[in-house]
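3.2 Worked example (two chains)
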Amino acid sequence: MASPRNVKLGLVQGSASGDAQSNMKRAEQAVREAAQAGADLVCLQELYRTPYFPQLEDASLFDWAETIPGPSSELFSGLARELGIVIVVPVFEKRAAGLYHNSALVIDSDGRLADIYRKMHIPDDPLFYEKFYFAPGDTGFHAMDTSLGRIGVLICWDQWFPEAARLLALDGAEIILYPTAIGWLDGEEDGETEAQRESWRVVQRGHAIANGVFVATVNRVGQEDAVEFFGSSFVCDPQGQVLESASEGREEILFADCDLARVEEQRRGWPFLRDRRIDAYAELMERFRR
């Protein structure tokens, strides 16, 4: 039996106002609370520093973007070094004039920027007009080395694509984190909203099972214009069992203990990576087959 390799996750399920400085201060306080409670790895929700502005197309909202290095990287690099923890910080990144991304910084426990992930799958749906703001990421799907081991980060819409989770697992990720902003639109019926949330949970639990990894999802919460973000952040183990789950409508920090030795244990029993037919998957590179 492999020896335990325990990582305590702290997922900050928060809301955001139109005051970036206030959002940063609240996030800092939440990270400190998580660390005080023993968290080794803390993750904030998607676009933690701003409201979910892609509900409309407005060029003036590009002013909310920040550079890297910039306010978030400076704040949380110092905080990670002070607290000795790994922090995942999702930001609206200004990469160059006219070039913006929906990104996540992974800051190691020594304050070093371990890596940046740029959201690869960009949605364009009613009230989720992200293609107006964000260029598709060019980082690919790669695990990141941290003091806790190799972790993977994907963002929101990436949750629905099994290829993304699989590529992270193949690159050695033992935990996949999904900072998220998903919610219900005003006027949707209760039965439909619950079906949507259950689909969202099930697909991510499936990623955990198919890849033998821990999956941790942190969603934002609260009513923002025509979208109600439903929280419900959760962590599941490599067998897809939900370890911990947050409330639907409350700001909170969700904690979960992850024994990374479970990855090896699960993959020995269900060796999906061993039995993959990599000689037969070339057609996955096609857009569609009849």
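3.2.1 Second chain
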Amino acid sequence: MVFGSSACLGTEPTDPSNGVSAVSGDAWTSLRGSLGHGHADGTLPDSWTDAEYAWRIPLGRRDVGSVVIANQQCFFLAHDATKNSISLRCVSMNDGSSIWQRSFPLGAYAMHARNSYAASTPTISGDKIYIAYADDQHTYVRCLDLEGGDVWVRDFGPWQSDHGFSTSPAIIDGLCVLYDSQQADELPPGKQPSHERMIAVDAQTGDDRWMTPLTATRTCYGISSGYESPEGSTQVVNAGTGDGIFSLDARTGKVAWSIPVFDKRIVSSPIVVGDIVLAACGSGGGGNAIVAVKMPGRSSDDPQVLYRIERGAAYVPTCAIDGDHALMISDNGIATRFRISDGKIAASGRIGGNYGSSPIVVGDKVLAISLDGVATIMNATSLAKRGEVRLGGPVGASPAFANGRLILRVDDELRCLWTGAEM
């Protein structure tokens, strides 16, 4: 089975099963942190000033892709409009100095006004970094080593969506997984419906493992999560308009279960907490909802909807997890803390502003940053406001935190705030 062009560009990597990883110390290895929960140990100040940044570096333009962190280095994608290219950049966590940069040609495509060409977030696993990007004619997934050397690249063909590209690869059970969800309805004149599928390749070699067709409707952007079922099988969990919340067997790609619970687009990522998955849908015109589904314990069982929250539900931002509670920031600035097991609201209140980036929990505080760059710091339990910082520029990227350092992408800058001793 071959479903995309392949080139293996490096030597065979070290087997990750030997327990040796090139990633050491505290890390933030994907869009929502290393566990996908948007949670980190550490401390956050209630406020800070421009003079307190450890460093800030110009990036040349505003992009909405977030930063990942490993080995005291920050990795992120950036777009260069003058060269029609997208770059994977690596900078020092200590002073922001450039360590290396790799650039790749990039064509054009239609996209939402709030999107950007470098909207995807890299994913780090072991001693490799994985990126995804697309244009009208190509959908690329690349694997590089942490020094910027090529390992493999795949091209899965044209990309079509009126919102553009912004999903990210996930590493699950030795697979590099990409949710290739493209537009099939509400198309502009002259456009033909496209496909929806989950693609899995070997994370070490880029070789085909499986491709599962799904129900194409509207482009959805969630990053897949892994789940170990009670029966011992690893599953790939995601959510889309056409199939609702669904799970695929990681070994074969076969659909294990699906439950149709959505009628709108999914932009945020599903979160797996124990045997519960949280996922949300919405639109710019409202109708947002977050749904909790209890995943089946056995292959003969069916998934069950536990609850549905519509009031104050987020569409674009993904929830953060704080123990047995989830913290949600709606697109129009309502903060909500609810119990994951039953959806009981523990605290809620309006903080104001409009939001696209996702909140994170650091220690006992929540950080939420609005589209116009107002950072609000709240108590994680009560949601009482602790402080506010006006960052001085728009923010679409979610923050990252590791080694006592908060990394922010503000307008056309990358900034680092040292918040205390390294963890």
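3.3 Remarks
The radius of gyration is 20 Å.
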